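Researcher: I'd like a structural prediction for the single chain below. Treat it as a standalone chain; there are no partners to consider.
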Amino acid sequence: MFHRSVGISCRPPPRNVEGRMRQRASMPFPVRSLKHSPTLKRTSGDEARLMPDQPRVPFPDPRLSGRGRDCLHCDVRHLALCAALDEKALQHLERIVSAVTLAPGQTLFDEGDSVKYVFNVLTGTLRLHKLLPDGQRQITGFGLRGDFLGLSAEGCHPYSAEAVSQVELCRFLMREMRDLFSHFTELERRLLEMREEELITAQDRMVTLGRRNPIEKISAFLLEFSHRQERWGQAPTPLTLAMTRGDIADYLGLTVETVSRTFTRLKSDGIIALPEATRVELIDRERLNDILLRH
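Model: Treating it as a single chain, here is the predicted structure.
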């Protein structure tokens, strides 16, 4: 999972609404507003404008979500938390799961919300982000296939989760999931393994943010996503990136202009190709690795 929440404290989001609105109005990509802010709508010129008369898209009614799933034949079972359970144990999981679908821009949960549910991501991409006191947004990661989201020791969500593309998830009531953990110790072991992997990735990302220049950051991002596709059983290239250049900038601590220039430079050097806005072909993965190794 690109997002790593290890060690993040759970606090309510900043209440500088004017700062949020000013920052969001300048974003070159569509963002759905949080609960106490006007909704944003994508308009011509790829600008996000304030549309205060539009209601916030509500979270899907659980009564409409389709209780129960066929967990045994799930495409992401081998990637997800439930990989630890055998066929008999999966029957217990099927009794407490609900299927949820989010449209692009819909919010799964907001920073500071109480934790009621936890989620497995089946398809699609979510942006996970925090709002800083001055209204700036920091993307802490992306929720992708097989990721387990929503668990927090603090009892409230330390970040917001918002759909970038259409997203399908499995949803579990937190108290029911705790009961499963108490009955199936293999679930706890699997969760520990996943959290250990997240901690390692979080440490790598600290190096990327603190010590690498823009071309190294973009190279590391592309290689990380390529390795993720391989874990899914897909080819390592081309990459399908649902997130915008603005999302990548907020994730890597860069400006949108720097991200765009870096992609153009990698393309001009024959390292990548950009057949579409959301597709990146890694023509020379070895040179991408060399960029990281020589710096």
